[in-house]
Amino acid sequence: MRIPRHWLLVLAAAAVHLAALLPLVGSDSFILDNVFRPYAEGVLNGLAPYGALGFEYPPGAIPVLVLPGLISSTAEHYRTAFDAWMLVWDLGILAILGLALSTNLRKLAVALAIYSLGLLVLGRLVLARFDLVPAALSLAALVLYQRKKGFGWGIALGAGAFVKAWTIALLPVFLLRERRRYLAVAGFALPVVVGVAAVWGLFGEGPGTAFSYHTDRGLQIESLAASLFLVAAKLGLVEVDATFGSGSFNIAASGASLAKTLSIVLLIAGYLALLLLIYVKQIRTDLAVTLITGWLVVIAPVLSPQFLIWVLPLAAIAYANHWQFFLAKAAAVTLVVTSLLTRLTMENYDKISFLGDDFVASIFTRNLVFVLWLVLTLLLALNTRTPSSAKISR
């Protein structure tokens, strides 16, 4: 039996991913050894995640972290199991792209190339975090939405939000043009309600501490606002120190708290403005969800490098669908360059504590390119909007 050509493309991409990522499986990871595995062991030993352990993620992240702990007895075994688990989700994203673009080999090749280049350059980070899970679920939601599966995309998006809350921000985008909104909302609520009820039933508590954990965070050192402080410090305009708290390096400087507040205000105001723009200009949904996700990542007061993983699958399918436009090509290249600069930034982490020149330069350059990418995506969205005659666009 002949294998369809679109699956041959997916298999070729999968081979590249396996070649790049398999050698990293089980390798050293501070986060896996000192954060994720202790969480998993604590839950398996009967400790309440949000009470005794101070779990910082939504309830859906609990099974994601605990599952590798069920089949491992040492730190090395946990790393191997967790990495393999994330590799499955990565291959799942390739499969979803294959299903979504099965009728157009050119678009599929473009999407696989954008996603693969942007992801694999991040190296060890890809498998040492669980951001591939909500990234896969948000991509599945987009594909199901385009196929008019209202209940299905709702479940996928709700499951993503149950693992990492950022996918909640995509719900209004999908609902703007969804005819059967009640089904979609019911689907979205199902995994969230069932999951929270399960946590209450098992541990007698809700995820309240996860909210306070994030609201108490400082201005993270890699965020857009923080990078402006870092450059100002190099110019002798302000004194800045690096501090560690809430799982990340943050900046301590006069005006940092105000900058964090302004970032949040801009984040919310810009999000609402983008929703209005998407509705008024009838921006196509694949570009709309890419734009919204990008805004969340670029503007938020916390910009961890793994957040790029949220953007990559959505951007890959959006740019592939509009590859005939120069702006799509420019945005795709800029996104891959952003990934590369993020990798270079991570290689300068040893200079964070004393704010070395290489670290500051890499952070500022990465964020500058990231902003450029966001602008290019916005321009692309505005130039490829749905024709006014089409009331419902997917």
Detailed description of the structure:
The chain is mainly alpha-helical and 394 residues long. The protein has a domain at 217-394. The chain has 16 helices and two strands. The chain is globular and about 60 Å long. The two termini are 34 Å apart.
How is the secondary structure organized here?
Blueprint: H1 5-21, H2 30-44, H3 61-70, H4 75-100, H5 105-120, H6 132-146, H7 150-163, H8 171-175, H9 181-203, H10 208-215, H11 224-234, E1 240-245, E2 248-253, H12 256-280, H13 285-299, H14 308-321, H15 326-346, H16 357-383
Antiparallel strand pairs: 1-2
Main sheet: strands, sense, barrel: 2 strands, antiparallel
- What is the distance, rounded to the nearest whole angstrom, between the alpha carbons of the first and last residues? 34 Å
Please tell me what the overall shape is.
globular
Q: List the strand order in the largest sheet.
A: 1-2
| Gyration radius, in Å | 21 Å
> What's the helix-strand series?
HHHHHHHHHHHEEHHHHH
Q: Tally of extended strands?
A: 2
What share of residues are in beta strands? under 5%
> What percent of residues adopt helix (DSSP H or I)?
55-70%
User: Mean of the pLDDT scores?
Assistant: 92
| Protein structure class | mainly alpha
Report low-confidence residues grouped into runs of 5 or more.
Answer: 387-393
